[in-house]
Amino acid sequence: MNLILFGPPAAGKGTQAKRLIETRGMVQLSTGDMLRAAVASGSALGKRVEGIMAAGELVTDDIVIRLIEDRLPGLDGTGGAIFDGFPRTVAQAVALDAMLARRDHNIDLVIRLKVDDAALKARIAGRFAESGRPDDNPDAFVIRLAAYNRDTAPLLPYYQARKKLVEVDGMAAVGAVAAGIDAAMATSLGVT
Length: 192
Ligand code: AMP
Prior knowledge:
Largest sheet: 5 strands, parallel
Radius of gyration: 16 Å
Number of strands: 5
Oligomer: single chain
Bound molecules: adenosine monophosphate
Shape: globular
């Protein structure tokens, strides 16, 4: 099963992805992690995206589409992909559908973790201190949230129209969020 974990920064996508990797042998494809690795390595790509990421803006579609395309062969023989932080624009979603179709795959399910902005700001305040991420600070966070609402929220109708979208209350306790995700996956697989 290939799924997209969808939600604003700090919605809990990373926590849930980790659990799905451990319990189902899925592979997480996080463009944010790939880009941070590029920055850490000091590569040409890393230098190109470092400032954009630190400011909380989106990098260009072609960069992240290429990163994902390069990783797709690694999915063969796994429990499927968890796309985390990708796609973030409709152009990325269209490109993802096309590259999966070329490999006889598709997106089975899109899980939207629903959270409210005020609670999110409170949640992120704790993370600022610990994460060490240059974009985990109040100014960049406001920009990241704005980018999400402007560029990424329009993906919801895209996946709703394709009957892939399931909403899970991201404000619930971690275990309840996990149960909501498991139920959505079971329904998608037709095992309920
Ligand atoms: P994340 O770890 O998913 O919050 O991503 C951190 C940062 O990486 C974002 O704020 C963007 O600057 C960049 N980024 C990650 N994924 C994408 C994407 N799919 N499209 C554009 N920019 C991205």
